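Amino Acid Chain and Its Fold in Token Form
===========================================
Structure side: the spatial fold of the chain, written down as a series of whole-number tokens.
Position: the record begins directly beneath this header, with no further notes in between.
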Amino acid sequence: QVQLVESGGGLVQAGDSLRLSCAVSGRTSSIYAMGWFRQAPGKEREFVAGISGSGTNTYYADSVKGRFRISRGNAWNTVYLQMNSLKPEDTAVYYCAAGWVVGTAANEYHYWGQGTQVTVDS
């Protein structure tokens, strides 16, 4: 089994930056593709960013492209989401997820963290 724990969320002002972390545990966790999703109250969970198991290929939602960056740590037990130029519309609970292949749909991932709240004030 794979366990995921997100951290790094908080309250920031528009234009600020945050870096979210997802700690991954499990014997084969390092080979999983990883994704970040977010969900605001009353809205569907939406894809934010994804990274292949190798860490070479990355994918971004149009709404965050150029502002957010997903990466894997040197130890390959952590995945990051660097968020720059944050906007109020980025406010949501952010979840990390692991799957066999990078996808943009939530149901393509098999393991999920509990989420971390990001709130951006105007």
